[in-house]
Amino acid sequence: MSFKSFNLSQQLTNALAKLGYIDPSPVQKAIIPKALRGVSLLAQSETGSGKTHAFLIPLIEKIDMNLNRPQAIVISPTRELARQTYEFAFEFTRFFPKFKVRLYSSESDVSDNVEGKSVPPQLIIGTPGRLKDLLITKHIFFLGNIKRVVLDEADMLLDMGFFGDIEDIFANLEDPQTMVFSATLKQNLKDELLKFVRSDFQFENDNVQTASTVKHHLIDIKHIGESAALLAFLKIRKPYLAIIFASTVEKVNQINKSLKENGFDTIYFTGSLDDRSRKKALRQIKSNTCSIIVASDILSRGLDIPDVSDVISVDLPNDLEFYHHRAGRTGRFGKSGDSWVFFNADSVSGPIALQKEGVKFDYFSLKGNELKPETLGPSEKRKMTKKKELPEAEMKDIKIAKALSRTKGVEPGYKKKKKEAIDKVKRKYRRMAIRNSVRKQLDISFRNNDDED
Ligand code: AMP
Fold first, then answer.
1. Ligand 1 lined by 21 (C-beta under 6 Å)
2. Which ligand 1 atom is the nearest neighbour of the CA of 28?
3. Predicted confidence band at 409 (pLDDT cuts at 50, 70, 90)?
4. Exposed, middle or buried: residue 442 (CB in 10 Å: 0-12, 13-18, 19+)?
5. Residue nearest to atom 13 of ligand 1 (CA)
6. Does the Cβ of 52 fall within 6 Å of ligand 1?
7. Pairing relation of β-strands 41-44 and 202-203?
8. Percent of the chain with pLDDT over 70
9. Is 147 in the pocket of ligand 1 (CB under 6 A)?
């Protein structure tokens, strides 16, 4: 199937071919025909599946290029996503000289357009708060010609609390065709959507997702710290383009510092960056000037960074759903990719939970400068290392011994004293256990002797 089979205008078919889009992706095959028919729908689709063009192509096809009025709106949860969609849409202006698209988010400088001095755009792309402010509060454009609205990354829009603003925008539109794209399809998302979308709304099933081409690997880093393990791993793996994720900004900072100190050129990306630094980082990322990006989970959602070969999680996010977003930064559009997760004996629960969810990991351990394939995963190792539970009374006495050996401040020899106190309790219980066992043996032999009498 090619784009020609959608019966798009010759101009759009030619534009797609010139932009290098020959065959539609699964999500495009599923969505474009319905979108062209005017169907309102919710589709599950990850970034990397081609979803942006699944909505841009029908939107552009349906825009009346001779009418200088807003005709469609795309609402994105973050400035970065909005900009990315804007850039994809802007590419089409080369082929449609009358096509006007504009970005409205807190990052874009809209001063010359806000007053309505320039020709209104036909396609508006932006973040919810900014769009509500401009379109509803300031009412900078006539909205009567808006026939289509796209909610991109709708689960994120909902999680970030934007549905109130979106509902207000919808309240000012006349029942537009609504296309919703979301990485996950939770019931509460459907419930919330049904409050304001058209009654003929269709829920697509999840068969429009692209098959995953990501391989998942667990690396037992043992007692080596995360930063040191990462340095060793990067030297072994030499990734083409890696995104390194950590769950807190502090850890991202620490890792970035350690990499820089060890001669690695990195791009740093977290939510704590100010606008200019974020934009600069995104430009650097897109211009392929560097092979290592160190990021917090803000980068795990939605952004299209081509050719990421490796995703490395030095730890797992608290909300494991973000692991899937992290891993989804690679293996995009049919390319293969690798997602590596560090763990040690103290952090087995996350990997085990992911395995239970169905993520298929293979196993490695890091030994010196070698990445060694392993046969045992975290759950098997946990079983093997699980300490034998001590009897309750013994645990209680050990606790008391510890408390008694504690002194104010840290005295010299404090640790030794504590160990001696604990050992004394353990010896006492070992003696008791031996005595009991001897008694039992004696009992048995006495009984046996009695029996013989
Ligand atoms: P998205 O899922 O929208 O973030 O798109 C992921 C990447 O796939 C982008 O870099 C698009 O340029 C690219 N892409 C989208 N549709 C196609 C297609 N039909 N053929 C090849 N590449 C595509």
1. yes
2. 19
3. low
4. exposed
5. 50
6. yes
7. parallel
8. 87
9. no
Ligand 1 center to residue 21 CA distance, Å? 8
306 CA → ligand 1 middle, Å: 9
What is the mean predicted confidence (pLDDT) over 143-162? 94
Q: Which two tokens stand for residue 75?
A: 């609402």
Question: Residue 232 pLDDT more than 90?
Answer: yes
Distance 323 CA to ligand 1 centre (A): 22
Measure 48 CA to ligand 1 centroid, in angstroms: 6
Amino acid at 115: E
Residue 314 near residue 288 (C-beta atoms within 8 A): no
Expressed in angstroms and rounded, the spacing between residue 209 Cα and the centre of ligand 1 is: 13
Q: Identify the sign of the CA torsion 262, 267, 271, 273.
A: positive
424-435 pLDDT per residue, tens: 888 888 777 777
Question: Does ligand 1 lie within 6 Å of residue 209's CB atom?
Answer: no
- Contacting residues for 165 by C-beta, under 8 A, at least 6 apart: 128, 129, 131, 132
Whole-Å CA distances, 358 to 71, 78, 352? 43, 30, 10
Give the residue-averaged pLDDT of 301-314.
85
Q: Is 49 in the pocket of ligand 1 (CB under 6 A)?
A: yes
Element spanning 214, H or E: strand 214-220
Candidates 216, 176, 436; CA nearest to 336 is 216
Closest to 152 measured CA to CA, from 44, 20, 241: 44
